[in-house]
Specification:
The structure is a homodimer. Helices cover 49% and strands 13% of the residues of chain A. Chain A is an alpha/beta fold. In chain A, strands 3-2-1-4-5-6-7-8 form an eight-stranded mixed β-sheet. The longest helix of chain A is centred in the middle third of the chain and has 29 residues. The interface between A and B is large, with 93 and 93 residues.
Chain lengths: 276, 276
């Protein structure tokens, strides 16, 4: 099967690497707006062939949209006209707005998905082998995809070693707001707050591991994440309110010198030990 | 030199391990209120000798207080009466309240220090070799320590491979509030917010790396951290206000659909790439 990968960054590039294990099953075609991405992808030998026209992507059996979520929505109309057997898979971190923007005539072609994996790094050089192995692939609103498309997508996800779970797109967006998008907002807020108050020397001197953990994802791509934040605005606002409530509890306990309250609040967070 | 280690958890235990490289220079004596800690320390062979009375600790050449910061303050009076050549080093994560609680008659004995290293794990079994190697050791208000004590402490810190920096205790407390204490509060708040809203299954399914980074330090000890939060209350409140301001900026931009503003806010956080 010919598989057209739109976007040769971390997600698309790592998918291309994963598919090299199946040279007789998948042939990869890469497409990217960014010329330096194309150059890097060629140097790294990420895909079997770089294509320059989107029509060549549309002629593939499988199309992967591994681009920022706003670009996924913008590219919807370009995909009208694909053959009825073509499977289109997007890797967007938000799902509801993407799903509602799919033109009805290609709805069955589409399998909206979200691989729960990644790093803070971007571009073709960030691609790594085994990015998808043993990682969750969320597939949303699967009943609205064509039967053939369901089979093709699930087989592909199995081939790259993902663990598949199904979810409706509204639940997905609410859950990832809390478990992924709001934590990113916290990390951006932390770093912006610290960079205003403290010098690089202070940070380097006093960084003992905790700041490094908490700031790692603040290095994430501004384009990718501003797209995600805007598309999942309402859920993100809910989750930000929820974490601010917790911070205000902490502030109140500090002001009241409530050692026991703070102790119990931290102990409650410790319950995570039984989960992760 | 005999070195008495009060508290055989992660910090004290790891120090004992580090000193095993100098069998002819340092002999380690361990003291802990917690009987299961003593049992584990014996099983792990952490120290050369376990002692049961604090008087035996007071007879050592160097005393290390590797206990929660409130316990350090509480133990001050117990240390009155040490010989004038004894060096007392505390490893507390706050410094100002500890420094101001040192009885004047042992002020020269004292070298207030803060090793910028650790993990979220606790107890003797958490002890690791090389915990201090190439890590910063902050030494506060050093001019108030005796000349001999300064030499003994700095030599010890060199021996375990730490990089020493000096700071006054007020600056220390303000800086670590932003770089360490507030990030812990963020992690506790994040996890408490998510545990209320989401099931363990959701967390396990949708955790793609970012939540793991952001939640790691939420597993930290409630006793240790409620002590730190209370002792560094004012600086922590300042830093919480600062991070909440950033979160509110983010909320305002979301409400105003301000893609460019969010993009620029994230890009500002990306400046960390040049630092860490």
């Amino acid at each position: 099967m010919n598989i057209g990968i739109v976007g040769l960054g971390l997600m698309g590039g790592s998918l291309a690497i994963a598919l090299k294990k199946f040279p007789n099953k998948y042939k990869t075609f890469g497409y990217d707006h960014n010329l330096s991405h194309i150059k890097e992808a060629i140097e790294l030998g990420l895909v079997d062939k770089i294509v320059e026209s989107f029509e060549e992507i549309k002629a593939c059996d499988i199309i992967i949209l591994a681009i920022p979520v706003r670009s996924i929505v913008k590219s919807m109309n370009d995909m009208i006209g694909v053959g009825e057997n073509v499977t289109i898979i997007d890797f967007g971190s938000t799902k509801k707005e993407i799903v509602s923007s799919i033109p009805p005539q290609i709805r069955k072609n589409f399998v909206p998905s979200h691989p729960m994996t990644g790093t803070e790094k971007t571009g073709p050089t960030a691609s790594i082998e085994n990015l998808y192995v043993d990682k969750i692939m969320v597939v949303c609103d699967l009943e609205q995809s064509g039967v053939r498309q369901q089979e093709v997508a699930l087989e592909l996800f199995n081939d790259i070693g993902s663990k598949i779970i199904q979810m409706d797109s509204a639940s997905h967006d609410n859950s990832v707001a809390f478990i992924s998008h709001m934590p990113h907002a916290l990390s951006f807020a932390l770093v912006n707050s610290v960079l205003v108050q403290k010098s690089s020397d202070d940070i380097l001197a006093l960084e003992g591991g905790s700041f490094k953990s908490m700031s790692r994802i603040s290095k994430s791509s501004p384009i990718m994440w501003s797209d995600i934040f805007i598309q999942n605005r309402n859920n993100l606002l809910l989750s930000l309110q929820s974490v601010k409530n917790e911070l205000e509890k902490c502030e109140d306990m500090l002001k009241n010198d409530d050692w026991q309250g703070i102790h119990d609040w931290i102990e409650k967070a410790n319950r995570l030990k039984g989960i992760l």
